[in-house]
Amino acid sequence: MQKIYLSQFGYLPASARNPSLGGLLDASTWTKAVQDFQSFAGLNVTGELDEETMQLMSLPRCGVRDKVGFGSDNRSKRYALQGSRWRVKGLTYKISKYPKRLKRADVDAEILRAFSVWSEFTDLTFTPKTTGPVHIEIKFVESEHGDGDAFDGMGGTLAHAFFPVFGGDAHFDDAELWTIGSPRGTNLFQVAAHEFGHSLGLSHSDVRSALMAPFYRGFEPVFKLDSDDVLAIQALYGKRTTQGGNGLNPTSGGAYPKTTQKPVFSPPKTPRDDQLCKDPKIDALFNSADGETYAFKGNKYYRLTENSVADGYPKSISDGWPGLPGDIDAAFTYKNGKTYFFKGTKYWRYNGRSVDGDYPKEISEGFTGVPDHLDAAMVWGGNGKIYFFKGSKFWRFDPLKRPPVKSSYPKPISNWEGLPNSLDAALQYTNGYTYFFKGDKYYRFNDRTFAVDYADPPFPRPSGHWWFGCKNTPSTTGNIMDNTEESNLPSSYNYDDNDDALLFDAAFVPLHTLWLILLSLAIHYSIAWLEYDI
């Protein structure tokens, strides 16, 4: 059960949820996962499942992962900048399914009060609706409810919510005994205020007094939003500049329990290998089938967290992927779970860390129509096709078509507005954006506008600072922007400079499940393919 728990909340890979695979989990990975949980929760870090650790694991809690990516640092600076937020400040919501044991009017009042927690410190406004499309849809449901993340009955997981990039909806387990202003049951106000933090783009905090800490500690009659929560929400939406605000100022409710560690916006850690900071140019970058992000450089590879390089890296490519040479040209993981590496005229196919039989093979044999000596490769989320880049050209490869590369290719990279020629690496990151790397810089590509994204600081940005956690490299073309300067920027800058929601600007659709999100993305991208013919 502990393995399932640690996997569910981001401390172990998803494979750990399969009991039949439990024996394959090596001792060091298990110990590191327990240590990470203990560190996040402010416990004595022993790596052992002691009584204190087990007791905390048994507490009711939010169902959102503590660590957004396995092995990542919680709510690290780069995650806050690359996580998602709404681009409009006037948001709407509706309760499409009410709890069974509370009056609707009472629920309406508590939900409005929970939203007002966040409008008190920002210019966000929240307007309830009863029909039509809204930004945030709220449901009280039980067990499996269509989003692939089933509730577990009373206790355990209380609720979960989606970040703006995934629609912002909030689901509450109706098997809980939801109560209002009472020490009995589970307090609706405090849980709702926490979940709406996720709906607005905040992940879990490791500050014990923060509302966005993940564990529920019971009803408390006096509520005050922690400074950690205030800094986080204002980093996304700016400080409040109006006298207005939506909702009632909360005077009662609850708070979430504490954990202690670093604050949300602490600077990224310096990676163990200074060479990557001296020369941030990389050979390849890809997401593995287990959700990790790896960067290759020379004969070394690095596992990336949300803001830096993971402890213990770099490592030798030959140790991590036996049989694979260094100085890789390009790499990507396809939807079949296989990872493909390219070098010169050859390519290798790996299942996890094991090379498949009869590899390497010639690129001309397995990827007909694709050139040798590539610069970069990626699977684009817009259409699931594989894109290869070399020099000033790119090729689109569809393994289901014959021929897999249409006669109209190659096409100029200039079709991807704002991108340079001769790229080094490319990937679609977990936040839905596509990133391109060249030299010591990277570009964030907006698939909606089909151009390099507009932001402040502008792109390209130094990859050493923003991706590899290099403290002694600039964050922009000028000096490093420290945390104080960043938090004190005008609201328009705080509002625009984050790597954030891919699609949900002014237009919005009530998205109930991830497959509906993907369906809407497919429809959206089909228009882009026709317009840009990529």
UniProtKB/TrEMBL annotation:
Domain Peptidase metallopeptidase, chain residue ranges per copy: 82-239
Spans annotated as Disordered: 244-273
Binding residues for Zn(2+) 2: 62, 194, 198, 204, 212
Chain positions recorded as Ca(2+) 1 binding sites: 174, 176
The entry's keywords: Calcium, Disulfide bond, Hydrolase, Membrane, Metal-binding, Metalloprotease, Protease, Repeat, Signal, Transmembrane, Transmembrane helix, Zinc, Zymogen
GO cellular component: extracellular matrix; extracellular space
Record: residues binding Ca(2+) 3: 152-153, 173, 176
Amino-acid positions noted as binding Ca(2+) 2 in the UniProt annotation, renumbered to this chain: 167, 169
Keyword DNA-binding: no
Start-end of Polar residues biased regions: 244-263
Sites where the protein binds Ca(2+) 5: 331, 377
Cofactor stoichiometry and binding remark: Can bind about 5 Ca(2+) ions per subunit.
Annotated Zn(2+) 1 binding sites: 145, 147, 160, 171
Entry cofactors: Ca(2+); Zn(2+)
Keyword flag Signal: yes
InterPro entries, alphabetized: Hemopexin-like_dom, Hemopexin-like_dom_sf, Hemopexin-like_repeat, Hemopexin_CS, M10A_MMP, MetalloPept_cat_dom_sf, Pept_M10_metallopeptidase, Pept_M10A
Pfam families: Hemopexin, Peptidase_M10, PG_binding_1
Active-site residues, Swiss-Prot/TrEMBL: 195
GO molecular function: metalloendopeptidase activity; zinc ion binding
Modification type Phosphotyrosine: residues: 359
Binding site for Ca(2+) 4: 283, 329, 424
Family stated for the protein in its record: Belongs to the peptidase M10A family.
Name of the protein described by the UniProt record: Peptidase metallopeptidase domain-containing protein
Species name: Glossina pallidipes (Tsetse fly)
Upper taxonomic lineage: Eukaryota, Metazoa, Ecdysozoa, Arthropoda, Hexapoda
